[in-house]
Every structure is written in structure tokens, then in C-alpha cells.
Amino acid sequence: MSSSQNLKIPLQEISSVTNGFAEANIIRKGGYGLVYRGQSEQHGMLAIKRLNRVCIGDNEYGMEVTLLSKYKHENLASLIGFCEEDGEKILVYKYEANQSLDKFLRSKDLSWMRHLQICLSAARGLRYLHNETGSKHRLIHGDIKSSNILLDENWKAKISDFGLSKIALIDSANSVIFTGPNGTPGYVDPQILNGGITQKSDVYSFGVVLYEVLFGKLVAVPGYLGDSPFTVKMAKKHYLMETLHMMIDPDLRNEMTSDSLRTFSTITYQCLEECTEDRPTMSLVVEALEKALFYQQVSFCYTFGPSFSHLWFHNSCFFGRNPSGYLYDVYISTSRVETKHFVDCLCDALKQGGLSTYKDNSKRLSVIKESRYFLIIFSKNFGANDWNLDEVVEIIECVKKRGNFVTSVYWDVRPSDVRGQTGYFGEAMSKYDTHPRMKVWKSALVEATKVPCFIQSDDRPCEALAEQVAARITLERLDHELYKYTINEKEFI
């Protein structure tokens, strides 16, 4: 802590700005101790955390001071100083006007766009810790939860409480630190019990926070049900059953665009994958949240008609040209049997938007690499053709290596059927049970169920679904052209 000595603040000064640690100045209580509000002529409004001498050890206190004095970022809490006189352990921070995220989960005053901005800024803070400290090691926060995400007067999030943070000396997102279970029940990565913590443990905890934001309530703590709680298992089940709307406040749900919700919920689910290697990095989480925000912003800035046609033509400067060099805009993978009429409608709708498509049977796999956007239409007989399954493998490879856009449509099958090869989908695919590529196909199908999707319902005509899917693809195209101007310039954040 020697490099932090200039941050030392005398105990007398801290006592003065808190009126002698008066009870009236307490703004938060926790197992770590008490937080007081204080006003300083030099530093302005302060949040002063007086740590419990019994519960907080020298290691936790020292880690907090070391990290926050060394690493600075707009989405990390700002450490003003510390005090360790007379056996005290006191941390002094800049006071954040809106305190912490957990206090606003139920608020009806925050729009969905504001929720997204908060989540995105918190994700950027965590990404900084994981990837951007400029050092040869990796940082793990160790206690990500909504009460440790502070909010300033502009609702920008600040990651706080680094007492349980760890430093991995190996430069890898999957570097493991073997340690005893720590963190907060409900947020802790269950894989910690099987071999220590990694940065993906933070990703898991952040996924829990994202579900809290989506549902407007805290996660259930083991042994305490609280007020209408939810569990991670419950949240994941609602995602797979496509019943998330049952958990979301109706007023908030009405604000959300389908693309924004789909993108947000998909990355949230992926954060909570049981296998740590299957979880995204925080860089990917940031990218997904930026897209979710972008989709919401586009909806806010434009008035869409039922077919979105005026958006396509008003932005025709982006279409009718192919700056990326791809031969085709959209590659469609389908069984052709059940979906022929839908595919015809879709191709017509895409053509109106100035997008070229490929849906012929010849040289399918070679054309995939020459296409920019992929659409997979899953149906009962999709898995009955091995070339369809090979298509999915090739598509997923392109997505992983080159970042191509991909979405899926479920036609008379459910995502869970594709993911687990069950139901009619599984029956059609069962003839390949002993095929040497079965393991590769299954893995690709699981990956394909994680992308944004559309579910065909019996009461939705082919034409209506085709327009929605075409609008989604068109929006991705618009995203590619406008993305850097709306997000990188931070116009809305």
C-alpha cells in the first residue's frame, strides 16, 4: 500500500465531515460495516465506508485500496482516500447521487433504454478490469452484485467493493485462482466449488444482475425467499420456454423492442451457462448490450410502419451496395419441405429492401463463406438432411471466426427441440445416431439456439413473419453502417 500513502486522510478530518460518525449521516448498512455521507470543502460530497473491524480483514481492505488507487476508469468507483488510524479501517469515496442499482430495480421511473445504459456502463467497467488494465495479469472482481454497482447523477454505473478481488498472474480469461468460497449467495458461480474462480465467475454474477434488471427484483438468496423472488434456474427455464414476458413488468415490456429484448435475454442466458468455457467474455457482453441499446435507440428515433418498408427505402443509401465484398447478403438454410412458401415470401421482402439472397441447392457450403448474413430456418425435417446439418456447422464457424450476423426461425419446432434433438426434430435426426459427425452437428445446433430467433405461431401468416424477419435482417444491415456513430460517440450515454 506504500504507493497509496498520499491518499491517507486523517481520522479527525473524517470524523468532522460525518459529524462524529453521527447516526443521521448513515446512508447504508451492511455486513462490512456502515456507510456515512459527508461534505468536504476539498472533495465535495463523500461516501465514507467505516469497515467492521471483526468482519473485514487486512487483505480485503488492502486489496480495495490497492486496486482503486492504481486503476482508474469512468465506470469504477472513485476512491478519494483511506484512513487506518486507531485500529480503524475507513475508505472514502466520491458520493454517487443515485447510490446503488439494487435500490432502483423496482422503479417505474426508469425507461428500458435507461436500464440498458446502466447495464452497459457497468459491463464496460467490468471489461476494463478483465482486459484493459494494461498489465500482464488478469483481475477478477469476485463479488459482482446489484448493490455493488453504484449510480451517479447521470445514471452512469460504477463498479465498487473490491475487497474480494483477486489477481491472476496468467494472462487468460480462464486462469483459475484456487480459493475458498466467497462472494454473495445467489450471485456466486456454482463452478467455484469445482475448482476456484476465473473471470468467467464474474461473468456469471453479472448475468444474475442482468436478470435482476430484466425482472425488476433481487435474486433469491438460499434460505430466504423474500418478496416474489426468482432463482437462476427459474430464469433460465423461462428463457428456454420463451416465457420471459411472464416475469417482466408489463409497462417495461411494452417499451422494449423485440430485437432489444431478444439480444439482452440471449447474452444474459449465455452468462449463466454451467460450463465456464461456454460463457462469453465481458468484451462480448459489452458488444451484445451495445446492440440491445442500439435496437432500442433505432425504435426511439424512427417511427416504424408494419412492414418497416419506409425505413428500408429512406436508408437506401446503405443498401444496393456491398462494401464488405460479400457475394450475397443473406444465405438461407432451410429444409425446403415445410417452409417453401415462407422462404418465397421472405426473399420477396428482402429483395424490396435491396438485399440479395442465396437459396439454391448447388454448392451450398462453398457459398456460405461468400455470404454476409445467415438465416437458419429450423423445421421438423431440417435434421433429416445431413447437408443441412453441415450447413449449420459451417455457419457457426463463420460466425465465430468472422463475426457474421445470424438469426434463426423455428417453424413447428421449439428451440429446446433443436438444442436437445428431441420431439419431431429429434425423430428426423435419429437416423444419424451412429454417424461420425453427430457430435460436431449436435455442438453446432446448441450454438445455433443461442442466437436471436423468431418463433412461428399458428395464427401468424407467412407474409407477416417474413416481414418481421426481413426487418430484423435489414436492421442488422443498418446496424453495421450506423453502429459506430451511435455507440462509439456515446450520443445516448
Which strand order spans the largest sheet, edge to edge or round the barrel?
Answer: 1-2-3-5-4
| Spatial separation of the terminal alpha carbons | 34 Å
Count up the helices: 16
Number of domains: 3
Please name the CATH architecture of the largest domain: Orthogonal Bundle
Name the overall outline.
Answer: elongated
CATH-defined topology of the largest domain: Transferase(Phosphotransferase), domain 1
Order of helices and strands: HEEEHEEHEEEEHHHHHHEHEHEHEHHHEH
Count of extended strands: 14
Range of helix content: 25-40%
Structural class by sheet pairing and helices? alpha/beta
Strand-residue proportion: 5-15%
CATH class designation of the largest domain: Mainly Alpha
CATH superfamily of the largest domain: Transferase(Phosphotransferase) domain 1
Key features?
single chain; 493 residues; Phosphorylase Kinase, domain 1; five-stranded antiparallel sheet; Transferase(Phosphotransferase), domain 1; 40% helix; 14% strand; Ser/Thr_kinase_AS; five-stranded parallel sheet; 3 domains; 14 strands; 16 helices; alpha/beta; Rossmann fold
